Amino acid sequence: MELYKLTNKNGCTQGNTQWGIGVTHELKATEKPRLCTKDVLHAYKNINLALLLNPNHANISNPKIWEAEGEIVVEDYGKVGCFKLTTTKELSCPDWYIDDKKRRRVQVQFAVLCAESVLHIYENQYPDDNRPRKAIEAAQNYLKKPSNAAAKAANAAAKAANAAAKAAKAAKAANAAYAANAAYAANAAAYEAAYEAAYAAKAANAVAYAAKAANVEIDFCALADQAVKMEDNN
Predict the structure, then answer these.
(1) What values do phi and psi take at 30, rounded to 5?
(2) Cα(208)–Cα(203) distance, rounded to whole angstroms?
(3) HSE-CB for 154 with a 13 A CA cutoff
(4) Can you give the pLDDT at residue 194?
(5) How many Å apart are CA 177 and CA 182, to the nearest integer?
(6) Per DSSP, what are the bridge partners of residue 66?
(7) Using one digit for the tens of pLDDT, what is the confidence trace for 58-85?
(8) pTM score, two decimals?
C-alpha cells in the first residue's frame, strides 16, 4: 500500500534510522504490535495528515516527505505501523505547507473540522451548554478575518470550552469531555496560529479519544484533505 514517511533533512528518523530512495527496514513481527513503540515502523496513509499531525508526533522541523510501501499491521486515525517499510522516492512539500500563512490557516481549519466532527457527542449529553459550539464559531470567525481581536475572542472561547471539558470530565462523561477538548484545541489553534502548530494535531488527538469513547468513526485523512481544499478555494 502507498504510504508516506516523514524524516528530518538528513533522511533520518528517531534513533538515527536512515531512509532514502529504495531503502528498506524490517522488524521482527510481534503478535500485538502497538503504535508509538519500537514494535513497528511508522508512516501515514495521507500526506496532508502526516504534515498536520507532525507537530504532535515526531515534531520534525522542515521534514522531508517520502513515498513509501508497506503492509499495515496496526493503525490509528491515519497513522500506521508496518513490520517492513520501504521508502521509494522523495516528494515535494505541498504548496499549502511551504507558505507560512497558508500552513497556519490549514492547521486552524483542520482543528475546526476535527472539533465539528464530534461536537454532537458533547451536545447530545449537554444540550443546553453551547460553550464548545461557541468555541468552534470563534475559531471560524478567526479564519474568515484574522485579527488580534478575533484571536482574543478565540482565546476566551477556548477557555470556556476547556471549562466545559473539565466539567464533563468531573462528571465522568469521558466522551463529552474529549469532544469539548477538541473545541478547545480548535480555538487554541486559532489563538496561537502565529506561534504554535501543535494545537491542530492536539485537536485531532482529542477527537480520536472522543470518537473511540462514543464508538464513532472519523476519517481524519478526509478531514485533512478537506482543510487543504478549503484553503485552496479561499
Answers:
(1) -120, 160
(2) 9
(3) 29
(4) 36
(5) 9
(6) 5, 90
(7) 889 899 999 999 999 999 877 999 999 9
(8) 0.81
